User: Which sequence fits this backbone?
């Protein structure tokens, strides 16, 4: 099975920025919750795509050793602060750029930043925590949007098919004329 997640922000003291203070009282408590949830789902033989921002505090990158599976990192803005040689001790593969993979016969562009996603295929992204889960051709895999856990490829396909076949204009309210014409 393949899993996807982003923005674990291990060691991040800013709990209120992502509403994490609603479920935890300390960064360690959040880190432990993410690790526990992750290891309940992921097995040693699973492949996990981390779409950036693993550790807010570079010293906390060592928490990755507690996570199961074959780990692939696509670097985000916080990961750029950590030397690649250090990252490679915790991840099986490390990429500064994006990847394209196939799930259920569909190609997906994996990237940390929604602003760098492409319009020619579906995108799996992060960076924006829980601000939204889906856009017209994007799925956000930030742990804050998915109950502090990774999501698997079956959920990616479920959401992708819902976007394509069932979601209406109300899901994508940012595209509505009332929002497009709004000026500040």
Assistant:
């Amino acid at each position: 099975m393949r899993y996807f997640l982003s923005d674990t922000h291990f060691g991040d003291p800013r709990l209120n920025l992502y509403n994490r203070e609603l479920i935890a009282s300390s960064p360690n408590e959040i880190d432990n919750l993410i690790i526990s949830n992750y290891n309940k789902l992921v097995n040693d033989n699973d492949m996990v795509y981390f779409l950036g921002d693993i550790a807010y505090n570079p010293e906390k990158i060592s928490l990755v050793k507690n996570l199961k599976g074959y780990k692939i990192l696509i670097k985000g803005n916080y990961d750029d602060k950590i030397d690649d040689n250090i990252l490679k001790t915790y991840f099986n593969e490390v990429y500064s750029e994006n990847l394209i993979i196939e799930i259920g016969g569909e190609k997906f562009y994996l990237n940390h930043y929604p602003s760098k996603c492409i319009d020619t295929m579906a995108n799996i992204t992060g960076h924006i925590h829980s601000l939204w889960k889906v856009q017209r051709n994007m799925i956000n895999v930030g742990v804050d949007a998915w109950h502090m856990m990774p999501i698997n490829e079956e959920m990616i396909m479920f959401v992708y098919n819902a976007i394509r076949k069932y979601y209406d204009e109300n899901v994508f309210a940012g595209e509505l004329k009332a929002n497009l014409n709004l000026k500040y």
The mean pLDDT is 94. Residues 27-41 form the longest helix (15 residues). The helical segments are 27-41, 84-90, 153-165, 177-180.
